[in-house]
Amino acid sequence: MRVELRVLGQVEVLVDGTEVDLGHARQRYVLGMLLIEANQVVSTDGLVDRIWGERPPRRARQLVSNYLSRLRSLLSAGGVADEVVIERRGGGYVLLVAPDHVDLHRFRRLVADAAAAPDEVHASDLLEQAAQVWRGEALAGLDTPWIAAVRQELERERFAADTDRLDLALRRGRHAALLPELTTRARAHPLDEQVAAQLVLALYRSGRQADALEHYEQLRARLAEELGVDPRPHLRELHQRILAADPGLTDPANASPVVPRQLPAAPALFTGRALELAELDRALSTNGQATVVISAIGGAGGIGKTWLALTWAHRNLHRFPDGQLFVDLHGFSPTGRPTDPADALRGFLNALGQDADNLPSDLDAAASLYRSLVAGKQILVVLDNAATADQVIPLLPGSPTCTVLVTGRTTLSSLIDRHGARHLPLGVLSPGEARALLATRIGDRRVNAEPGLTNDLIELCGRHPLALAITARHATTHPAIPLAEHAAELRDLGLAVLDHDIDPTASLPAVLSWSLHRLTDEQRVTFALLGIAPGPDIDLPAAAALTGLSEAQTRKVLRTLEEHSLLDRHPHGRCRMHDLVRAYAAETARDLLEPVRRAAMDRVVDFYLHTTDTADRILEPHRPPIPLDPPAPGARPHPLSDRPSALAWLDAHHPHLLAAQHTAAAHDRHQAVWHLAWALATFHLRRGHRHDDLAVWQAAVDAAERLPDPAALIHAQRRLGHAHAELGQHEQAIAHLHLALAVAEHHDDPAQQARTHHALAWAWGQRRDDRQALAHASRAVALLRDLDEPVWEADALNTVGWHAAHLGDYDTARSHCQAALDLHRHQQDRDGQADCLDSLGFIAHRTGDHHRAIDHYREALGLFRSVSNAVEAAVTLDNLGHPHVALGEVDQARSVWREALELYRQQGRDNDVARVQRQLDDLDRSAAQPGERTLHGVHHLGGR
């Protein structure tokens, strides 16, 4: 049974020459759309839009479903149900059919085969077959805006194929037989110079020199009148040769130079990259034929540069009727030996018909001959895998009619600077493109069966095309192994799974290694160290500390690595590696000498530690400092001058600081581990990083247990207890605080005892046990009276007042909080003043003085904001709403509670979010009673 599906004419389905009834026009519309995009999913919304445009009927989606249901029935009745299958898939429909059954796809395959044909005779025969596939206007009888646009594009494809076919036929001496067709084409395209050139040449070869010259003059006059331009050089040259009766024009063998067709085959499984392909289209369309267009496609090894270049080239063959040149410059390859441009030139000259035995030996002479041969021609030159601009520049045509694509891992800066190249950087695939790649290679059914697992594979491969292709190869060559096992191997073994012992081009580590061949030792060491540097990325000061180089030297090295596509530069001076490139860098770091690695880690940890310590001293100048060892040689802490710059630096580098503590722990730098926890405490509390605070203090306790100084262990245990209390983990909090107290008592350290009692007061306060809290706070006050620590004493006095107020002893509460406020004002401690004012606001509200309460809360809020303490600011806003409610000021209460709600959300304080939301919900129904303070004195317990 012979099945034919046609769109190049009327939409038809024929079985052994007999037409299958397809029903009314809209069903033909739908079938035509699916045939044009055969074997690709077309969304239901896309079908609706293509049928009805902007004004679809109300039940459009159901109508589409009905049309397709009827089409299935008609195709089944016609006996082609096994050959043509329409399936619903992924929010749309797909028509599954062998491409050669569809005339459009058969036409495209014949054109592509002709482009890759080994000789002109074979190419000519294939293009003749392609021309016979057409039966008239595509999608004849159907008319929608979408069909009109598709029809126009298909006509362009047909025109380009016919132009190539006629060129080949003229070279084979068939000018007489072609005259009727060429005359008709010239009437249909009166301004097309390629069509005119073909007709002029055919007329001249048929003995009609006068007619040939007359047609040229008619075209020249029409171009001048309608477009204001002269004929292009190729046509003017033909005119001059006719006037001179050039003997070469009469011999078909010498009618035109050899047309090179050097492009490798188009990638069979190419997916995605729609944005990049469109950008290449724009690069050519913007410049037209006015200037040389060089799109230097950059990107790391295995990112898909060559596939993108070849895909675009094959989709645009019609733009380059005079041929395509291709050379692999081997800039990054297993051999490590880039192609000499002189060798590449010899290959191009041979492809352009020059005798291999008579080529110029001098590079400049060969380049000059090459430029002469391609002058005025529409030729595409693909220079693949370039290492340097020196390889590329001799291969650039001098003619504005040629187009060049360059691929390489380096930026090739001089091409951009001196030759106006458009740089198209190539990154990883989008999630959708990565999924499409896997689906294309291992099948839709397997990918869709486990969408979660597919997402895992995509992320484990970092959406890197070669990594995905290797993973797909593993999956297809081992179909019995579930995808879950492949994902587990990637998760556990990482880069090793993407290696290949035999074929280096099938190994991601090997492909990445070629990028290092042209690096200096200094650049290779920096690349390796970046793989093991703490944090997700790095900025210039941290990188300088990591390498031990000056910032100027480091900047040059980073720029070189960026130009080799080994790292990317992001805003604010940050440099980041792709996860798999970083994993490879970490592998290469194993080859460094241990002292080199250790010194680098010491420098970068000390850079982060000492800069964090500087920031902490700015944020909390009243906090007693701890002595730090001098930074390692070569580690230059980043200078910070004021509170905004300190907070901005801590916000930007917080992930790096957590990672630096892990690095310090891995290298048994116990002092650095505990010191980093100390230096981060104020920042964590002001920004509400409660889980991170717990993690760093747990690490600090582990480190402090190995240090000789008991004060480190006492403080670490106390802060760990506080971190547990922050998260509502009361039992763990009390346990760690009592451990801290026991060590402080054992070493007879009254200051540490006082601070631990203070922490216990806060922890019991979190549990609403005000009596226990008051007892511990009072004990802290008693101990501190004999010590010269006024800020801690003020904190403890305020805490006594707070819990006394909760127990109804407002006179005691007010006197203690006022005394605490006086001490904090004397010490110019804005955080402490704000805490005391917040407490006094609470006392005033509880005793019915709501206006005074509002004044205290407002003053506290201003102070908290002045020191960027968003955690306490949220609590004060929360508290401020209650006296407003008591005074009937509902709008003011709603405003401050909404602000508190947003801050609580930002800080991940879910219980507080729920409580304030309830207060807002109840606001218009009843006056809320003063809420219990859920978080008080955080700054003083954690920041000092």
Can you give the helix content as a percent range? 55-70%
Strand content: 5-15%
Shape: elongated
Contiguous uncertain segments of 5+ residues: 288-292, 927-943
Helix and strand content put the structural class at mainly alpha
Strand count, sense and barrel status of the largest sheet are: 5 strands, parallel
How many β-strand stretches? Answer: 13
Provide the domain count.
8
**The CATH H-level homologous superfamily of the largest domain:** Winged helix-like DNA-binding domain superfamily/Winged helix DNA-binding domain
Q: Which CATH-level-2 architecture of the largest domain?
A: Orthogonal Bundle
Strand order of the largest sheet: 8-9-10-7-11
Radius of gyration: 38 Å
**If you consult CATH, what is the topology of the largest domain?**
Arc Repressor Mutant, subunit A
**Count of helical stretches:** 42
Termini separation: 88 Å
Summarize model confidence as the mean pLDDT.
88
What's the CATH class label of the largest domain? Mainly Alpha
Keywords: DNA-binding, TPR repeat, Transcription, Transcription regulation
Family: Belongs to the AfsR/DnrI/RedD regulatory family.
Protein name: BTAD domain-containing putative transcriptional regulator
InterPro entries: AfsR-DnrI-RedD_regulator, BTAD, OmpR/PhoB-type_DNA-bd, P-loop_NTPase, Sig_transdc_resp-reg_C-effctor, TPR-like_helical_dom_sf, TPR_rpt, WH-like_DNA-bd_sf
